[in-house]
Design brief:
single chain, Jelly Rolls, alpha+beta, 326 residues, disordered N terminus, eight-stranded antiparallel β-sheet, 31% strand, six-stranded antiparallel β-sheet, disordered C terminus
């Protein structure tokens, strides 16, 4: 009995050890709690004005700390506040490269000039998130070079294409109805008004922001992710890139159908129109905020369970051999 108990204990310990070894490893993380500007590359299209700050205290516009965050500092991006040109830019952590199966996670806050819901002047801008870039190419909605897979969400839900996916196969974005979009309808499945996105919306500008900017009244329309911290993720699994927000899958791109420039990640911001906001606070309020970026490896599916089965099999064989000797 004691020998059997020892074997069972050993088996359990081995399985626990195997499971631990199969857990996701952190490949990169950045919480922006210290100034990390020197470790990022800004890729500007050079067509209009941009604003980027890797150590921005977003409480300055009344935004609360991101979930689990220890501070209110993060990455701020804004663009085309005065130039009046269709333009944008992207940023990437300098020198980073990821391969195999991995997951990119981040917190994103979209903000725009009020009134919240319909939006004010020049608010239909685009936040972008992507993978597979060399990290030295501007990534934006009108970019001529698409050497990555990127996903976009409009700030105010004011476009017929609020949710977008881009790649070398679709440099101006995959069209509505394309199967890369996971909303089940085919007509209008990129529009935030589609029922698939109805779980988003109903958020108001924080009270501190309304105090600072009294025009920030109202609530977001259904399908908007603005004015609340949303959790974004891009999963690279078995040569597919799947983008999700708060657990809702948005788009899935087959990487075997595209050309990638590298293995870095990107975040971007741009305007979708050839005009600028007339609001004096546009550079403060028409922004994308990013915090708590984490890249983790994803263990091969079934590797832990297969190892566990093998471990149990080996221990069972030992028991059988011992029993045969008796």
């Amino acid at each position: 009995m004691k020998r059997n108990l020892t074997l069972a204990t050993s088996a359990a310990a081995l399985v626990v050890a195997l499971a631990a070894s199969g857990q996701a490893a952190t490949l990169y993380s950045q919480n922006f709690d210290v100034d990390d500007t020197a470790n990022w590359t800004v890729n500007d299209s050079g067509l209009s004005d941009i604003g980027v700050d890797f150590f921005y205290d977003y409480s300055a516009i009344g935004v609360p700390a991101a979930p689990g965050g220890a501070s209110t500092t993060g990455l701020k991006m804004t663009a085309n506040n005065s130039g009046g040109v269709f333009s944008g830019f992207s940023v990437s952590p300098t020198g980073q490269s990821f391969s195999g199966n991995y997951r990119v996670e981040f917190d994103v806050w979209q903000n725009y000039v009020g009134p919240v819901g319909p939006g004010g002047s020049g608010t239909t801008q685009l936040s972008m998130f992507g993978v597979g870039t060399a990290g030295n190419v501007p990534v934006w909605a009108g970019g001529s070079t698409s050497e990555n897979v990127a996903f976009g969400v409009t700030l105010d839900g004011g476009s017929a294409s609020d949710y977008r996916a881009y790649s070398s196969a679709a440099p101006t974005s995959y069209v509505g109805g394309d199967p890369v979009y996971l909303a089940p309808s085919t007509a209008g499945n990129r529009n935030g008004s589609d029922a698939y996105y109805s779980g988003f919306g109903g958020a108001s500008a924080p009270g501190d922001q309304v105090t600072l900017f009294p025009a920030q009244t109202g609530t977001t329309d259904a399908g908007e992710i603005a004015f609340t911290w949303a959790h974004g993720a891009i999963d690279i699994i078995n040569n597919f890139a799947t983008f999700s927000i708060d657990g809702l899958p948005i788009a899935k791109v087959d990487l075997s159908t595209v050309t990638l420039g590298g293995g870095n990640i990107l975040f971007g911001h741009g305007d979708t129109n050839g005009s600028s906001s007339s609001d004096p606070n546009d550079s403060l309020l028409n922004v994308t905020l990013i915090d708590n970026v984490v890249v983790t490896s994803v263990p091969e599916p079934g590797s832990v369970s297969l190892s566990a089965i093998a471990a149990f099999g080996a221990i069972a064989a030992i028991r059988r051999r011992r029993s045969a000797r008796r």
